[in-house]
Amino acid sequence: MTSLTAQNWPIAAAALPFPGTTANGESVTDAAPDEWASTLTEIADAGFDRLDVTDSWLRVGDLSEGRLDDFAAVAREAGVVPTSISAIRRSVIDHANGDENLAYSHRTLDAAALLGIETVSFGLHQALTVQQQAQLWFWTMDGHKDDPADWGLAVRRLSELGRHAGELGLIVSLEMYEDTFLGTADSAVRLVQDIGMDNVGLNPDIGNLVRLHRPIESWWDMVEKTLPYANFWHVKNYARDEDSARGEYFAVPAPMQHGLIDYRRAFRYAIEQGFQGVICVENYGGDGLSVCADNRDYLRRHVLPKREGYALGTSRVRQPRFEGGAS
Amino acid sequence: MTSLTAQNWPIAAAALPFPGTTANGESVTDAAPDEWASTLTEIADAGFDRLDVTDSWLRVGDLSEGRLDDFAAVAREAGVVPTSISAIRRSVIDHANGDENLAYSHRTLDAAALLGIETVSFGLHQALTVQQQAQLWFWTMDGHKDDPADWGLAVRRLSELGRHAGELGLIVSLEMYEDTFLGTADSAVRLVQDIGMDNVGLNPDIGNLVRLHRPIESWWDMVEKTLPYANFWHVKNYARDEDSARGEYFAVPAPMQHGLIDYRRAFRYAIEQGFQGVICVENYGGDGLSVCADNRDYLRRHVLPKREGYALGTSRVRQPRFEGGAS
Amino acid sequence: MTSLTAQNWPIAAAALPFPGTTANGESVTDAAPDEWASTLTEIADAGFDRLDVTDSWLRVGDLSEGRLDDFAAVAREAGVVPTSISAIRRSVIDHANGDENLAYSHRTLDAAALLGIETVSFGLHQALTVQQQAQLWFWTMDGHKDDPADWGLAVRRLSELGRHAGELGLIVSLEMYEDTFLGTADSAVRLVQDIGMDNVGLNPDIGNLVRLHRPIESWWDMVEKTLPYANFWHVKNYARDEDSARGEYFAVPAPMQHGLIDYRRAFRYAIEQGFQGVICVENYGGDGLSVCADNRDYLRRHVLPKREGYALGTSRVRQPRFEGGAS
Questions:
Q1: Is the Cβ pair C298, B291 closer than 8 Å?
Q2: How sure is the predictor about A287, in pLDDT bands with cuts at 50, 70 and 90?
Q3: Residue range A1-25, pLDDT digits in tens
Q4: How far A274 CA lies from chain C's nearest CA (Å)?
Q5: Where are the alpha helices (DSSP H) in B116-227?
Q6: Cα–chain-centroid distance for residue A283?
Q7: Mean pLDDT within C271-288
Q8: Which residue ranges of chain B lie beneath pLDDT 50?
Q9: Assigned domain for C315 exists
Q10: N or C terminus: fewer CB in 10 A for chain A?
Q11: Is the per-residue pLDDT at C193 higher than 50?
């Protein structure tokens, strides 16, 4: 395997900007392939050749084999390769729905294998509260917090998913998210270490953390601690201001190039740590897809290595495999 | 008439970034055509072929016929077509100056007809208060509020303008603005319905509303309700954050692609509702003209339909007419 | 000498985004030329042909003649011309380190002359306080304030630097910064007038002032008053909001084209006042170098005069000399 470059590094558009229900109120998961095709074509028209199947849009874990074939077919026709799956708000330690979420997560791994998707991301964040849903930006209000008593359960269940993924030849990535066991750099690293499997790493989505209306960890400290364990990466950025004398915090979604996190520096470090994972570009609010497209262009133009032969470090976890010219 | 595409949809630069007085303190309306030419050339140099004659820059309603010919001549020479007029802060129900503003509005329609401008936008916002003028952004402080007792008067006077416009073959568009009868989606739609004329519709300038330092209507609800009645569109965007627990609101002007309002989604819906009106790109503060130019490029590249033959809905109001290749 | 145009106006990348210590913890000033080369190559790769040697990255005033030759050689090889020096937080009226800072400033002038750098910027801002260093953005908390009693000392010492610079054929530029004698437009102009030397002017870095969490001078007033005395220009921008009813202020770094300051208008005025100085593009936070590159492109595309022969005013201070085609 050769190392990835700006030209062929897999960059997937998050399906995050697309709602999970159609104009008719039908679930996208239950909709006809034509409905999927329309979104996939829009993503392709924005210049993407790869897609992250965010399950707020489409739950492949709930599709039959025949329907998975349909999905693969329309993706092929649209010209976008489903390259990763992000299952969100399906915590396996949810006190009410943990068992169900675990079963769903296993089905999602099976679907990934059928679709030829190597990278699957899970998180410990739970459903938004009613108060969160009433905000302009849900992250401006506190939501679910993991209970330290559930640490062992988290390790057991995520390990179970890791083993299943391993049998299928897949890697599992755990998404950082506030107030969960994946909510700080130290805790996230400890969780991955406690799981201790080569194919289970981190998705250091530090954009989730720099947007909060409260004091935050330094973005660079988070990068420094978590990137050695990263095997997938949700990237997005925010403009942020704080007035600590008044206890005020403000943050708005921003193009990756303009926000607080210096992704030029972060990626240089990531490569020194051996990162070769899928990059999933995200953006909340507004015309998310257009900003995602700009984020992709920014990465290819300014951030990713132009040529092979750069010094690539050795990651603490297994990286996905991409054949030369796959992108 | 064929439907508009990204290539020929009329996009006008707002003259909003240009002051109404020259460096010498003279009113632009009283200035020599050379003075107009310099602004029009700057707008053309920014890549625009169409202009919204915002009357905070130039009041064509106060020009003689000879001076209107001069204006048309310098615009032709500069290569920008005056395509719409936005008369602002000239409310016809202003208690002090309503009669005068009504007369001015009629003169503005006559001037539009002479200039071959089909679209004229009026509003019910009134002069900024002294307190508003003292702010960095005037919209961060409350200003004039319409009195419900004046609803009938508004309907009568705007209908009178609508009839005059109809006789001249023009359309009238009513600009949404906070705390006026055009300040909420429901009220704006009701006003247009009460007027009930085919050539009187809405200018859903929801950027005016998403920048306020107070709770706001959802931008999407406003789009959904008002676009069926839109016949002209001031578009601009803002990055916005709220901290509802502390009762804090912040908003700053942002390029259309980066702000809160998803214009990709809004235009798709607008077209489903039959919108084929002039788009007037605006931006407050900073280098407004350069941001307007970016806004135009964003619309043509990412938002407007690439090809004719798309499914165009039927608007509740008459749309302006553009010959193929007019742009 | 012919007047500068968009094509050849010298635009230098600030070295501000680069830290003063290497990954090994060594001072960049003490590091091997290879270390310098890596940063200079990154700057060149971002499309820059000129560099501002910001002394938070490298203190040329502390290099031996041999090391200065090494620096010149690696810059030549990387393809970036060191065009200005910005010495920051080295106030010559610092009560503790004023003598040392004065000696350092003299050495910096000598180094500039050896490197063929004509423009050297000094400021009166002092070291960040511990509280400032603990903020996300240091400027959200008050720092050092100049003591009016030191005005005479400031004039004397800066005049001494001005004389030395004059002997070397250099110009000195004084950077605006809050709460120093260069903290308001009036005070900055008065300081330059009191110094009264043709080769000592202002660096009207008004971005330093529009980001503060407190009431600010109007950016345009600052431009109007200071540009007649400008001989160098740190340019950067911020998105800013104020809620004066609540006494709240919010500012985040923004690309020059998107922020509060209208650089299109500011540069038109600057040229009317005879400005022909080096432009140093800056940006704090995030991927500063990429934003600096966008700032440069914005200036060349939208702001600077396209052709020679424009009306150039007469500056109150001497401008640097650039041969045609030097850039």
A1: no
A2: very high
A3: 689 999 999 999 999 989 999 988 9
A4: 17
A5: 130-133, 151-168, 185-195, 207-210, 219-226
A6: 12
A7: 96
A8: 324-327
A9: no
A10: N
A11: yes
Instruction: Pick the residue from chain C with its C-alpha nearest to A247.
Output: C248
Chains within contact range of chain C (3+ C-beta pairs < 8 Å)? A, B
What is residue B73's predicted lDDT score, i.e. its pLDDT?
98
Q: What is the pLDDT of residue C1?
A: 59
Judged against a pLDDT cut of 70, whether residue C36 lies above it is answered with yes
CA distance A141 to chain B (A): 8
Are A287 and B302 in contact by the 8 Å Cβ rule? The answer is: yes
Tell me the per-residue pLDDT of C130-154, one tens digit each, with 9 for 90 and over: 999 999 999 999 999 999 999 999 9
Nearest-CA distance from A252 to chain B in Å? 6
E strand spans, chain B: 11-14, 50-54, 81-86, 119-123, 171-175, 200-203, 232-235, 237-243, 248-254, 278-281
Query: Residues B100, B144: contact at Cβ < 8 Å?
Result: no
Q: What are phi and psi of C60, to 5 degrees?
A: -65, -25
The reported pLDDT for the residue numbered A322 is: 87
Categorize the per-residue pLDDT at A291 as very low, low, confident or very high, splitting at 50, 70 and 90: very high
DSSP string, A1-57: -PPP-TTT--EEEESTTS-SB-TTS-BGGGS-HHHHHHHHHHHHHTT-SEEEEETTT
DSSP A171: E
**Two tokens at C305?**
């005069």
Pairing assessment for the beta strands B232-235 and A50-54 based on DSSP bridges: unpaired
Determine whether the interchain pair B263/A287 forms a contact, defined as Cβ–Cβ distance below 8 Å: yes
pLDDT at C319 over 60: yes
Q: Helices in C196-262 by DSSP H: which ranges?
A: 207-210, 219-226
Give yes or no for a contact between C115 and C129, defined as CB atoms under 8 angstroms apart: no
Least confident among A255-259, B284-288, C158-162, C174-178: B284-288
**Alpha-carbon gap, residue A205 to A199, rounded angstroms:** 18
Q: Which of A252, A260, A295 to mutate to test the interface with B (most CBs of B within 10 A)?
A: A252
Please state, for a pLDDT cut of 70, what percent of chain C lies above it. Answer: 98
**CATH code for the domain in which residue C255 is found:** 3.20.20.150
In chain B, the residue whose alpha carbon lies closest to the alpha carbon of C263 is B287
Indicate if the pLDDT at residue A146 is higher than 80.
yes
Look at residue A324 and tell me whether its pLDDT is greater than 60.
no
pLDDT confidence band for C303 (50 / 70 / 90): very high
* Residue C41 C-beta-side C-alpha neighbours within 13 Å: 8
CA atoms within 13 A on the CB side of B313: 16
Q: Are C50 and C322 in contact (CB under 8 A)?
A: no
In a domain, C6, yes or no: no
- Answer yes or no: is A246 within a domain: yes
Could you please report the per-residue DSSP string of C154-169? HHHHHHHHHHHHHHTT
Residues of chain A found within 8 Å of residue C141, distances taken between Cβ atoms:
244-245
The Cα of C75 is separated from the nearest Cα of chain B by a number of Å equal to 34
pLDDT of residue C324: 47
Q: How far apart are the C-alpha atoms of A17 and A310, rounded to whole Å?
A: 34
| Residues forming beta bridges with residue B54, ordered by sequence position | B86
Taking the C-alpha atoms of residue B181 and residue B155, their distance in angstroms, rounded to an integer, is 10
Interchain pair A250, C254: CB under 8 A:
no
**Half-sphere exposure at residue C217, Cβ-oriented, CA atoms within 13 angstroms:** 21
- How many domains is chain C partitioned into structurally? 1
Residue type, C307: R
**Owning domain of residue C232:** 11-303
Residue of C nearest to A245 (CA): C141
Give the closest of C253, C255, C287 to A264, CB-based: C287
Let me know if residue C321 belongs to a domain. Answer: no
pTM of the model: 0.96
Does position A230 have pLDDT exceeding 60, yes or no? Answer: yes
- Distance of alpha carbon A123 from alpha carbon A86, whole angstroms: 9
